[in-house]
Structure formats: C-alpha cells, structure tokens
UniProtKB/TrEMBL annotation:
One of its GO terms (molecular function) is translation initiation factor activity. It comes from Roseofilum halophilum BLCC-M91. It comes from the Bacteria. The keyword Protein biosynthesis applies. GTP binds at residues 79-86, 129-133, 183-186. Its main location: cytoplasm. It is found in: Cytoplasm. Residues 70-243 form the Tr-type G domain. This is Translation initiation factor IF-2. Coiled coil: none annotated. One of the essential components for the initiation of protein synthesis. Protects formylmethionyl-tRNA from spontaneous hydrolysis and promotes its binding to the 30S ribosomal subunits. Also involved in the hydrolysis of GTP during the formation of the 70S ribosomal complex. Belongs to the TRAFAC class translation factor GTPase superfamily. Classic translation factor GTPase family. IF-2 subfamily.
Amino acid sequence: LATLLAVAETEVVKRLFNKGIAATVTQTLDLETAIWVSEDLGVEVETPAAESEAKKTQMLEEGDLEHLHRRPPVVTIMGHVDHGKTTLLDAIRKTKIVDSEAGGITQHIGAYHVDVEHDEKTQQIVFLDTPGHEAFTAMRARGTKVTDIAILVVAADDGVRPQTIEAISHAKAAEVPIVVAINKIDKEGASPDRVKQELMEHGLVPEEWGGDTIMVPVSAIQGENLDGLLEMLLLVSEIEELSANPDRLARGTIIEAHLDKSRGPVATLLVQNGTLRVGDAVVAGATMGKVRAMVDDRGERVEEALPSFAVEVLGLSELPSAGDEFECMAEEKEARAIANSRAADQRETRLQQALASRRVTLSSLSAKVQEGELKELNLVLKADVQGSVEAILGSLQQLPQNEVQLRILLAAAGEVTETDVDLAAASNAVIIAFNTTFASGARAAADQTGVDVREYDIIYNLLDDIEGAMEGLLDPEL
Ligand code: GDP
C-alpha cells in the first residue's frame, strides 16, 4: 500500500497508529482500512464494480474479485398452489434434458440444470426443484441465499391469489429479482392481461406497461413458450452479472441430505463459489468428510462441479442439514478441527437458547429505536378481512416516518400461517394479527423461532403500539 501511495511505510503505520490501529509493515489490511489510509493521504480510491457484486453474493471474498467468471443463474419457482409450479419444472426438465440425452436417466438430487442457446452460445440455468417457498424461506431464515432469480407462476385463469402475494413478499424481502410466468394460457377463460393488472396492485409492473418486471405467458402443459421464459431468465441473469471464482476451493450450501442405507450420508451440494472436486476435504455445518464420489443431476459420475452447479456427494461422516453452508479446506485435519469446534458451538448455542430465547419483539425493536440502532420497522400484517387490512394499512401510512420507516413485508387477509412466521423470522419482523387466529402449526413455529405475534382486536391499540415502537417509547414490559 505504501508503494502504491508513494509514501514511506512508516507513514502508513503512523496514520494507522493515530487511528488507534497498531499494525506492522507486513500486516494485511482489510479493504475499508486501506481505503481510509489512502484517503487520509489525499488519494481517492475507486472500487471496481465487482465490489458491490461481491457484497450481493455473500459467498464471494475479496481475493476472488480478480478471478471472477460468469456463472449460471440458480432459479426457484414460487406461486400459489395448483398454478402449475410442478408441471412447469417437469416441462422444462423434459423438453430440455430428455430430448438431448436420449436414454439419460435424470436424477432427483434437488436441482437440475438445462442448456439453452442464447447469444449464440450454450448457456446453463440451474433450477432448484423443490417448488414452493418453504425451502426458500427456511434457508433465508438461516441467513443463506441460494436463489438468484425467482419465477413467480400465476395461472392465467385464476389470477393473483394469497400465496402469490406471499411469494412476492418473500422474493422482495430477499431482494431476489422476479420473472413472472403467466401459466395456463391454453385454458378457456385465461386472461394474461387481468393477471398483469392484478400484479400491478402488488407492485409488479410489466415491462410492456412501462415497468421493470418481465412477464412471460406460457403453457406448462403444452410446453408453449418455455424457450421464451428461459431466454428471459438468461437476460435477467446477464443484468445481474452473476459471477464466481472457479479457481479456488469450493463453498456453497447443502440443499438436500438423506441417509442412504448402503451409501451412508448423501448430500446435494450447490456450489456457489470455487470448484468442488472429488478428494476435497469438506466441512458442512458441524459435519465433515472427504468427497468420495459425485453424481450430477443427469446421473453421471463427475470429477468436479463448477459454480452454480449442484452435485450429490458421498463421503460426509454425518448428515448435514439442508441450508447448512459447506466449505472445502486444503487439509482434512483443518476440516475436522472446524467441524469439531462447530459441533461444540452448536451445543453451546442450544444451551444458550434454552437459557434465554432470543426473541425479536416489538418492545425489543422499540428499545433499538431508542438507541438509534433501528431505521426500519418490518411488519407482517394479517387481518380477518380485506377491509380491515386496507383500513390498517391506511392508518399506518399516516404515522410519521421521518425517524423510522415502516416496511410492510406482507399485508393480507387470513390466519397467521407458518410461512408468515418464516417470513417474519427471516426478516426480523413482528407479526400483527388483527381479529384473526393461528393456522395449525403457526403458533408452535412462532414459539420456536421467537417471532413476536401481536394480537389485536381494536385498531386504535394496534396503531398506538406501532407508533410507540417507532418512537422508541414502547414500554419494555409489553
Ligand atoms: P402446483 O401446485 O403449483 O405445483 O401445480 P401443479 O403443477 O400440480 O398443477 C396443478 C394443475 O394444473 C394440474 O392438474 C396440472 O395438470 C394443471 N396445469 C399446470 N399447468 C397447466 C397449463 O399450462 N395448462 C393447463 N390447462 N393446465 C395446467
């Protein structure tokens, strides 16, 4: 750094020292500190565009920035039940894979990839093949991001339904771009325009109407316009500039794991950065192992897996959980040491949790406002009827928001569901239940995740509490 800045090494050390950082000449500085020193010496620092990309994709580290290569998008399909998620996933798989690999046996490993001709090149798209957002939110609740693009399936004969709205909220909260597949256009009564109109009411404005959401009419059952949909996914992926560094040891996320009677623990690993190879030492959560064999989604034995690809891996000593991150190490003993220390940490955490559950409550959020630590209050609102939802939303909007912004992740009529709890847990939100009850399992989920569900039957009380929380004045006992 001193050489680059054309100053004496001691000059850098001195400035750091003045800032309270005791550093030696051979020490490595993090980017932020290096920028600070440079600017302190009057040198402006430009960080390459890749830097913000690195932040977006949490698996990238600073050392990767000079070795970035484009990677395929990882896509999840979401939408209301019966709108055609499974049919669409199967249709894409069938038209794109079975055709090209006559006799190939597709393997259900939790993800599959397809090859698409785009821009005169063959490009890949990887689909996570568990439809629905359960997997998506469960992973996000644990802080893992595996999805680059969400396909929102909406049936053209049915329109926007509660789970459609839920899916939109989830994708938005995770900041994942949405591509809408308006499905079942073959059906009588299908009205893509009505779907677009309804989606507009939820903040998704189609491109052709001046917005920025791509909406593609398809028929999953007749295989109509699937190529158009895939093309759009590649387009969005280009805009997102998805990239990773294949020239390093792999890291990523476990997307499935099960115990096989004869083969032992079998896990599907989604590589998000680096290249995974047979023989690599890997830590996943609190378990470890050496990759003994890998099978891809087409049932083929493979020696390596590049970023964005998923492979089934044999060789882990125990079963990891879906959503666990994995990481490869140069040395097996390093992997073992990390796994052992994590196992110890997990025991410790369980103990801690048993001692004091870490609840995010409206009053704990209020306390944070008081300390100036919170600028956004996330809410999930469920009410008995649509009229109440609108009345409450209307009143919430009236609350002054100069200090703290209200962010409504989801507002809908109906019971409080487990997915609402997942959404709240993933986003540190509080659930407001107005004149409504818990769907089965939801209360247990809230207890388990420590999500605060506040029940009201008088709007005035509800508004009073929220306003109090936003001003940091809520009584801590509440
Ligand atoms: P999921 O619950 O979202 O996974 O929906 P499914 O894929 O199970 O589909 C629900 C029903 O809609 C099934 O009976 C499908 O055959 C049917 N379906 C799915 N896609 C289409 C389509 O494009 N056109 C028509 N006519 N029916 C479809």
